Amino acid sequence: MVQATNEELLAYYGTASWFAIQWHGMDTSRCPSHVFPSHGLDIAPAPTDKIAVLRDRLLLHHPTWRVDLPGYGACILNATENVQGRLLNGVPAERVCCTPASSYTQKFIHIEQDPDDFRNPSNWIAPITDTFPDGKPQRVRCVNGNRLGRVLIKASAEPLRECRPYPKSGHAASPSKSPLSANNGHKRRLIWGLSRGYEAWSRHRGANPEWG
pTM of the prediction? Predict the structure, then answer.
């Protein structure tokens, strides 16, 4: 479902300014970094790239953290084989399983974290909202429970808050009924995108019974 959802979101938003963040947990022995953001390639980012800005905001709020970036050999967890990353970095959907990305678009942000405080959502709210501030065409949607997961960023003045529960199995989120969609076009577009993603996943699952 995650891949199909990203395909639908990419088809809908296209070249607009939007971002998809994935938070992942790494073992403390994997990298010397506490946190390692990347864009799906082992290439050093420009100072204005979102992962570089996010690194700077993380260090501003958490000066004792070690936050490294790709391109300097600090960590090998660059998400180069992440198929959503390949898709958002320009690889055609039908080739993401076997073709690496050759460049990055900044739409995909992959974050590896050590355990404990580095995975505490409350430690991420300020750095994320500083990186994607109000008034810009980007915004973090929500956090899931006590952990951060895959997050779509799109225009909204709504502050970071708790996610609503996922719809029951077999039912896509409804823009007309979801509390997320009330009187807010950006929320409606988000729910519409998730709904389209669910429908696409359902179609793929029908064509591939082994997916369960």
Answer: 0.64
